[in-house]
Amino acid sequence: MTQGNLIEVREVSKTFGSYLAVDMLSMHVRRGEIVALLGQTGAGKTTVLNLIMGTTAPSSGKITVAGVDPYASFKKLKGLLSVSFQTDRLLPWRTAVENVELGLLILGKPKAQARASAKEWLARVRLVGVDDKYVHELSGGMRQRVSLARALAINPQLIFLDESFSQLDHVTSRALRSDFLQIAKEFDKTCLLITHRIDDALEMADRALVLSPPAKIALEVSIDDKAREDPNRMATLHAQIAAAMGEEPATEH
Ligand SMILES: Nc1ncnc2c1ncn2[C@@H]1O[C@H](COP(=O)(O)OP(=O)(O)OP(=O)(O)O)[C@@H](O)[C@H]1O
Ligand SMILES: [Mg+2]
Prior knowledge:
Rossmann fold; alpha/beta; three-stranded antiparallel β-sheet; 2 domains; binds magnesium ion; 8 helices; single chain
């Protein structure tokens, strides 16, 4: 593995029966980097995430995550990576704090320590006073915050977000993105962010990769704070990404 790369994907292909979902993909994510994977529906984003998480094996090529093959050494990555999904996937019969502490309990942390940590993380994602509420008593945005707190609570090196902000309205989504970004930077997390929303990527990522089916990199762009402060630069990047995603500029919202 190249020094500094937490994720390395080399010439990976994946077929489902006769369908080629990923065709010779090479990409990497450096330690501490936030990389966005963009692409329209069916581009292969989730498939790439599953390959990197080790929940599915590549048909050919090589993947290394934190120095190991994520599929062959799936258990070695336990506790090292977390994922938060588009739907919050919280357990309805557990309260907010009980959902957040779950990962810690699974990793064998003592109950009191897990509880204290879970409460800390709920506060860090700005959820106060909801610890003992059940999932159905929380708004969609709050649930997504609980889901992020759960992902962060195990103190993973790597965090995967699969459309975590996509189902929220724009205002809620923006607030959550900004809070997550601040936490990711403060705690030096490496993140792979999967999204079909260009704004999510432009706001959060150090680098954005646009996939077009079968998971080919159609465009790669770097985004830094200087670019983020320049509306013209951002408009250009937005247009470039939209074009690579095969979108008409007018259809973007
Ligand atoms: N287990 C599977 N069996 C067969 N085909 C699959 C399987 N998983 C994914 N595919 C196919 O691979 C392609 C890529 O799917 P994938 O879910 O990775 O896309 P995506 O970019 O995540 O899309 P979305 O934005 O809708 O989530 C699709 O054509 C899909 O039908
Ligand atoms: Mg997907």
